[in-house]
Design brief:
By secondary structure, this protein is mostly helical. The protein contains eight helices and two strands. Helix 2 runs antiparallel to helix 4 and helix 2 crosses helix 6.
């Protein structure tokens, strides 16, 4: 296998865009649930906020749970829709030597599950940088609310995300395009993270 330079460029850009879209739609998941439950809410480049519609309105712990759940549910539901589409159209993928634009689009939708795996990687990485595990992730908070060990939901959903990725790579991406897909995914995903969450997102959506 070798890297297809033209495909690499297109996929590299697509992974950057997907990282940004995935982040914002995840936060929209929180936003929609918060608004549905009657709270003031908003999103910025990396997070969502919600508060009572008046200063005296406290946030119900149960509501906080559902609002927190809204983000991961949006992410996993979108990825699941993509995965279902992959299997519905599996015959067209099985006979493809090169994926079409529509096929790549379905692949990227299913890759929303990869956010769960990335969460586990960054959560573990934070331990090596800070000497302690972060308590800020949605899945961590959900586990604590359910009185489970903090790592439970993060780890379980990360495993599912990893399984989805393996299925995509070895069942749906043609052999000749796999290396290009993996290389562009690693570089594009990291670049998208840096460009949006570190460099420019805070100026574009403060």
């Amino acid at each position: 296998m070798s890297v297809d330079k033209r495909l690499f460029i297109w996929l590299f850009i697509s992974f950057i865009i997907a990282t940004i879209i995935g982040t914002l739609t995840h936060e929209c998941g929180h936003f929609v649930v918060a608004k549905y439950l009657g709270y003031d809410a908003g999103i910025n480049y990396y997070s969502a906020w919600w508060a009572g519609s008046n200063p005296n309105q406290a946030i119900n712990p149960s509501d906080s749970f559902w609002i927190t759940l809204g983000g991961p549910i949006e992410t996993m539901l979108t990825g699941t829709i993509g995965l279902v589409l992959l299997f519905l159209f599996r015959n067209s993928f099985a006979h493809a030597t090169k994926l079409s634009f529509v096929q790549w689009f379905i692949v990227f939708v299913s890759l929303f599950w990869l956010r769960q795996t990335a969460n586990l990687v960054t959560w573990i990485g934070s331990y090596f940088f800070n000497g302690k595990f972060s308590q800020r992730g949605d899945e961590i908070k959900l586990s604590q609310y359910l009185q489970l060990p903090g790592w439970t939901i993060t780890t379980l959903t990360a495993i599912i995300g990893a399984i989805v990725l393996v299925i995509i790579i070895f069942k749906f991406v043609p052999t000749k395009q796999r290396l290009t897909f993996i290389a562009s995914g690693l570089t594009g995903g990291i670049t998208g993270y840096i460009l949006w969450l570190v460099l420019f997102g805070k100026y574009l959506m403060p």
